[in-house]
Design a protein that fits this description.
This protein is α/β, with parallel strands linked by helices and 322 residues long. 39% of the residues lie in helices and 16% in strands. The protein has a single domain, classed as Metal-dependent hydrolases (TIM Barrel). It is built from eleven helices and twelve strands. It has an eight-stranded parallel β-sheet with strand order 3-5-6-7-8-9-10-11. It has a two-stranded antiparallel sheet with strand order 1-2. Strands 4-12 form a two-stranded parallel sheet. The chain is globular, with a radius of gyration of 19 Å. The two termini are 19 Å apart. Its cofactor is a divalent metal cation. Keywords: Hydrolase, Metal-binding.
Length: 322
């Protein structure tokens, strides 16, 4: 059976169990953290992360898929240190997270730049997948990129680099998108143009929309849709998220949906206490404590829940990219 790379080494896809397909351990600005150390207590945050991940493990989750890449503060050594204390599979990613430009380290060289040449991003992503991240030997198992409101030249360059790395390694792709701007369709157009089988894509954050026409178009194009922000009720109320998943499941599309919360143990995008006040349900155990009972009450069957939480992640990581 196919194996998938995790922070603790390769695991058979058959052993992934219940999977939350889009969760972060930490989302940080590492430059800020290093230069303003008072903003960060390493031991406290590591201990808190261990406690939160243990809670989700105790709910029956066996695997989380962590799409923290360059631009979101990936520190694989810290994640490994935490994972030593929690019996949980953590699947790491490679890629680059930007809504606009590539970092200045790549701004002047590469395709379409002042100096031209090959895109070093491709080799970096491939190295993370084939050799390991930051010299640790911990290998990335999927690729991550982002598009928010528009396809900027920088965003398109990252997508093309991700597509090339996918072709060289076969690992699947997850894309942060904005349903409000229907950029999931834009992402599909770019990847299809780059020769990627759209069945190898998760269109992330699709669950921020209750627009069934938009969701049907994404599904009809062949991708998985990430119903992966449960708890972010400020973007779409939870009852609408549940109703949308239940409707799609009733229509026979449980095999095209994956579930998650896009939560984190710590995210430095908000001042202390704001996340908890504005989005009190945005945490790792919300799905198992609240969402699954609501989905069952809305008519979603146990086999359909297993499809979304177990079977679809297994297929996603089993596929061999073209």
């Amino acid at each position: 059976m196919t194996q998938v790379e995790t922070v603790r080494g390769p695991v058979s896809v058959g052993e992934l169990g219940t999977v939350l397909m889009h969760e972060h351990v930490f989302v940080l600005d590492e430059e800020l953290r290093r230069n303003y150390p008072a903003r960060w207590d390493e031991e406290q945050q590591v201990a808190a992360a261990i406690a939160r991940l243990t809670e989700v493990r105790d709910r029956g989750v066996r695997t989380i898929v962590d799409p923290t890449v360059l631009g979101l503060g990936r520190d694989i050594e810290r994640i490994a240190r935490i994972n030593e204390q929690v019996e949980l599979n953590i699947i790491p990613a490679t890629g680059l997270y930007t809504y606009n430009d590539v970092p200045f380290a790549f701004h002047f060289h590469g395709p379409g730049t002042l100096l031209g040449g090959d895109d070093q991003l491709v080799d970096m992503f491939v190295q993370d997948i084939t050799e390991g991240i930051a010299g640790t030997g911990i290998k990335a198992a999927f690729l991550k990129c982002a598009i928010e409101s528009e396809l900027t030249p920088g965003v398109e360059r990252v997508m093309k680099a991700v597509a090339q790395a996918h072709h060289r390694t076969g690992v699947p792709i997850t894309v942060h998108t904005s349903p409000a701007h229907q950029t999931g369709l834009t992402a599909q157009e770019v990847f299809q143009r780059e020769g990627v089988d759209l069945g190898n894509l998760v269109i992330g954050h699709s669950g921020d929309s209750a627009d069934l026409d938009y969701l049907h178009r994404l599904i009809d194009n062949g991708s998985y849709v990430g119903m992966d922000r449960f708890g972010l009720d400020i973007l779409l109320p939870g009852d609408q998220r549940v109703a949308t998943v239940a409707r799609l499941a009733k229509e026979g599309f449980a095999d095209r949906m994956v579930l998650a919360q896009d939560a984190s143990c710590h995210i430095d995008w908000f001042p202390p206490g704001v996340r908890e006040a504005v989005a009190p349900n945005w945490h790792f155990t919300h799905i198992h404590d609240d969402v699954l009972p609501a989905l069952r009450a809305a008519g979603v069957t146990e086999p359909q829940l297993d499809t979304m939480l177990v079977d679809n992640p297994r297929r996603y990581f089993s596929a061999t990219g073209s």
